[in-house]
Design brief:
The protein is of the alpha/beta class. The protein is 33% helix and 14% strand.
């Protein structure tokens, strides 16, 4: 059955960090519209009613869809408590992905105070926390401070997740990090660094192929320990094998055949995917016309097909592996919630 299983919301382009791997989207030839400077991003953001209306449409299309609230930094949106309260009321499945740094803590406190429940919260905690040689920068700071803050967040959130992005130079620390997180009662989502294969891969600043993780005896050893030991890795029975098969960056998500994964940009337009904004898709497709009579509209399907054919050179986005697996087997939302399934 063809359903949209995961919706990625880029609620804002604003962020309190400037991580070296993140472009918060960059300009490229034929880009549909150029965003103004950071201080003016707010003028281009979806309104609260826009987002609520989109959530309603997606629920009508697939009540079991899983929503991921990204940024930039989503907690910089003052209406996030309203959005989360609506999701709780309507039983919409979600997680919030935050950098969870000290500057964001006042926003977190406000979110806890203004919501009756927070079902899912995710923060980046990468293996760099073990790497003493790593240069201090926002990416490293985010990981170290994010880990400390996740311990606090566990008191208030049902589904607490660490999003781990593995790079070539720190892959040897993967299992130790996952084991430590498991001991702390935090689940792990494992992803691998991807690169911008062309200027159209506008979400990433990474172009150095030496950062990519490739199939190796070292990684096989890390994966073997993850599989054999009682550690909490989301969908590890499926993802470990699938990630290995697509390394370093060769996954075909096939969203041009069945649109199982959708990304909504900050201005309400639809991107080809989280990695690639595309040319035709954001010009022609937005929250209002993505779905027609609860199905993916003809115009959206054709635009996505054209953009994927013209601009996609494959990737290793774990989120797409998950949504494709769920869609192919018509599974329910429990398989997308990051709980221990041992």
């Amino acid at each position: 059955m063809n359903k949209i299983r995961i919706i990625n919301w880029l609620l804002t382009r604003r962020c309190n960090l400037k991580c070296d791997y993140c472009a918060i989207v960059k300009n490229y030839k034929d880009m549909p519209s150029e965003y103004p400077q950071m201080s003016h991003y707010l003028k281009n953001e979806m309104t609260t009613p826009d987002i609520i209306s989109g959530l309603i449409k997606f629920k009508e299309h697939n009540p079991d869809a899983f929503h991921i609230f990204y940024g930039g930094e989503p907690l910089l949106r003052k209406d996030l408590p309203t959005i989360i309260n609506f999701c709780n009321k309507e039983d919409i499945h979600y997680t919030i992905i935050s950098n969870n740094t000290p500057e964001i803590k006042p926003r977190m406190k406000e979110l806890f105070e203004k919501t009756n429940e927070i079902r899912g919260f995710t923060a980046s905690v990468d293996p760099v926390i073990f790497d003493k040689m790593e240069n201090i920068g926002d990416r490293v700071r985010k990981s170290r401070e994010g880990l400390e803050s996740l311990m606090e967040v566990k008191k208030y959130v049902n589904d607490v997740v660490a999003e781990i992005t593995v790079m070539n130079h720190n892959q040897q620390h993967l299992y130790n990090l996952v084991a430590m997180l498991t001991e702390a009662g935090i689940n792990s989502d494992i992803t691998f660094v991807d690169i911008a294969k062309s200027p159209y891969y506008d979400f990433s600043n990474v172009t150095d192929e030496s950062m990519l993780v490739r199939q190796s005896a070292q990684l096989a050893n890390q994966f073997q320990k993850l599989n054999e030991n009682e550690v909490d890795v989301h969908m590890k029975d499926v993802l470990i094998r699938a990630m290995w098969d697509t390394l370093p960056s060769n996954m075909d998500c096939k969203i041009d055949e069945k649109l199982h994964n959708v990304t909504i940009d900050a201005d309400g337009t639809v991107r080809l995917c989280l990695r690639i904004r595309g040319v035709y898709t954001p010009k022609l497709v937005n929250l209002k016309n993505l779905l027609s009579e609860n199905e993916v509209s003809f115009i959206a399907h054709k635009a996505i097909q054209k953009d994927k054919r013209d601009y996609c050179k494959l990737c290793n986005h774990t989120c797409h592996i998950m949504s494709k697996y769920i869609n192919d087997r018509d599974l329910g939302p429990d398989d997308l919630v990051h709980l221990d399934r041992r």
